[in-house]
TrEMBL record:
Domain Thiamine pyrophosphate enzyme TPP-binding: 53-165
One GO term (biological process): small molecule metabolic process
Keyword Magnesium appears in the UniProt entry: no
Keyword field: Decarboxylase, Lyase, Membrane, Transmembrane, Transmembrane helix
Signal peptide positions on this chain: none
Stated name of the protein: Thiamine pyrophosphate-dependent enzyme
Superkingdom as given in the UniProt entry: Bacteria
InterPro entries named among the record's database cross-references: THDP-binding, TPP_dependent_decarboxylase, TPP_enzyme_TPP-bd
Pfam family, one: TPP_enzyme_C
GO molecular function: carboxy-lyase activity; thiamine pyrophosphate binding
Length: 203
């Protein structure tokens, strides 16, 4: 029997992976890069602790880093695509230098630029983002290719000492858009109030 998490090509389904990582999330804070990761976190359930980026290509990891530093008692997860991560490799060096214990970066690697026509990215030519993260002194680095490995990634996100980096190899499937609110003021206000409570109303 085929698992709902694994495609016919034996690659992981992106939204099944995200659904598992965000299941029973508690107060986990989530930043998602523009494009598919944005739609993915919304498809598994819009949440006030989500901050989906509609623009700002290559900014998701640095936003997650800043959030992890500002909220050291909260776990923070960043979902980014491989195209975005390739554009912001320097961010991994900063994460490795700062070493926030509460930050996880999960790269959904379909080896494609999904926003511009599904052209192959450099990861299709052998570029290893997990190896880059290791070279940037990030202590926990994983490459996830199977359903069984998702459980270990989930434990690292919720129980491990970060920073954690994971490349998750996913199927380059085309999925329907599930859009979060597109008004930046609404998203920012909602997120600030969820994170800071009443303090956000006066600052």
């Amino acid at each position: 029997m085929t698992s709902p998490m694994v495609s016919s090509s034996n690659l992981l389904h992106r939204r099944a992976v995200i659904g598992e990582l965000l299941r029973d999330r508690g107060d986990l804070l989530c930043v998602a890069s523009l494009g598919a990761p944005n739609w993915d976190i919304t498809a598994v359930g819009d949440h006030p602790n989500n901050f989906p980026l509609w623009g700002a290509m290559a900014a998701s990891v640095m936003m997650g880093l800043g959030l992890a530093i500002a909220q050291p008692n909260r776990r923070v997860i960043v979902f980014a695509g491989d195209g975005e991560m390739l554009m912001s490799l320097g961010a991994l060096a900063t994460v490795g230098a700062q070493k926030p214990r509460n930050l996880s970066v999960v790269v959904l690697d379909n080896e494609r630029y999904g926003e511009t026509g599904m052209q192959k990215t450099h990861t299709a030519a052998g570029v290893d983002l997990t190896a880059v993260a290791k070279g940037c002194a990030i202590p926990t680095c994983l490459t996830v290719k199977t359903e069984a490995e998702i459980a270990g990634l989930r434990r690292a996100v919720y129980e491990g000492e970060g920073p954690v980096f994971a490349t998750v190899k996913i199927d380059p499937e085309a999925l329907p858009f599930v859009l979060p609110p597109s008004d930046g003021v609404i998203l920012t206000t909602r997120f600030r109030q969820s994170v800071l409570g009443n303090e956000a109303l006066y600052n």
